[in-house]
């Protein structure tokens, strides 16, 4: 038992001496430089402190993959992003329209309403697969990397602004149109049978 206590004190002493060595050795403020700079990684070896965030921020790489954003007006609600997502962080609910409801910025015809388009950034692994498969390029990765929130449910971003009442109305319109088509088809079939 005494050997364990002595070992604990020794381990604590080694850890604290290393902490104090770094605490008093680095008293220079870090200079924020471009990632392409030759000095970018050398600064760590010179004993500089961490950057003084949020006053200082590291430059964002051009190919960085950070927070997702969706331009919902360009979304055709094809559901490809949700299907390719390896962690199921994208939740989409589509409602079929009775006719074309507009066009995206690249000219693609929209035939589905986005009743729900949620992305849970707490689950997202920032792989970028959703941005690659999007046919209208409405889902992109921004250079925004800091999203500190007090509660984890605030990391679920809701991009669709369709109220529940309007979504229900659109569902009923589509169901009525489908019923009307089915009735017309049945009437045409009966008429054909009577003509024979």
Summarize the structure.
With 196 residues, the chain is α+β, with helices and mostly antiparallel strands. The chain is built from 5 helices and 7 strands, in the order H-H-E-H-E-E-E-E-H-E-E-H.
Write the layout of secondary structure elements.
Blueprint: H1 2-25, H2 42-45, E1 68-70, H3 80-84, E2 90-96, E3 102-103, E4 109-110, E5 112-120, H4 129-133, E6 139-141, E7 156-158, H5 164-195
Antiparallel strand pairs: 1-6, 2-5, 3-4, 5-7
For the record, the CATH class of the largest domain is: Alpha Beta
- Shape descriptor reads elongated
Q: What is the strand arrangement across the widest sheet?
A: 2-5-7
CATH second-level architecture of the largest domain: 2-Layer Sandwich
The number of strands is 7
List the helices and strands in order.
HHEHEEEEHEEH
Low-confidence stretches: none
Question: How many angstroms separate the termini?
Answer: 101 Å
Helix content: 25-40%
Largest sheet: 3 strands, antiparallel
The chain-level mean pLDDT equals 84
What is the name of the CATH topology of the largest domain? Alpha-Beta Plaits
What does this structure look like?
- This protein is of the alpha+beta class.
- It folds into two domains: 2-45, no CATH class; 68-165, Alpha-Beta Plaits, CATH 3.30.70.3270.
- The chain is built from five helices and seven strands; from the N terminus they run ααβαββββαββα.
- The strands form three sheets. Strands 2-5-7 form a three-stranded antiparallel sheet, covered by helices on one side. Strands 1-6 form a two-stranded antiparallel sheet. It has a two-stranded antiparallel sheet with strand order 3-4.
- The longest helix is centred in the C-terminal third of the chain and has 32 residues, at 164-195.
- The model has no long low-confidence stretch (mean pLDDT 84).
């Amino acid at each position: 038992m005494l050997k364990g206590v002595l070992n604990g004190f020794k381990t604590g002493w080694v850890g604290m001496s290393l902490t104090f060595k770094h605490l008093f050795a680095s008293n220079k403020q870090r200079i924020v430089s471009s990632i392409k700079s030759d000095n970018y990684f050398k600064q760590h070896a010179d004993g500089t402190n961490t950057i003084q965030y949020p006053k200082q921020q590291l430059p964002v790489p051009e190919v960085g993959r950070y927070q997702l954003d969706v331009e919902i007006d360009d979304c055709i609600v094809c559901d490809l992003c949700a299907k390719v997502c390896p962690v199921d962080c994208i939740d989409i609910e589509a409602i079929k329209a009775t006719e074309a409801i507009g066009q995206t910025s690249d000219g693609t015809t929209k035939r589905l309403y986005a009743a729900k388009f949620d992305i849970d950034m707490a689950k997202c692994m920032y792989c970028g697969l959703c941005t690659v498969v999007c046919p209208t390029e409405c889902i992109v990765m921004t250079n925004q990397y800091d999203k500190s929130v007090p509660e984890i449910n605030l990391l679920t971003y809701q991009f669709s602004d369709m109220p529940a009442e309007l979504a229900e109305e659109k569902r009923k319109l589509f169901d009525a149109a489908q019923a009307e088509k089915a009735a017309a088809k049945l009437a045409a079939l009966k008429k054909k049978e009577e003509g024979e």
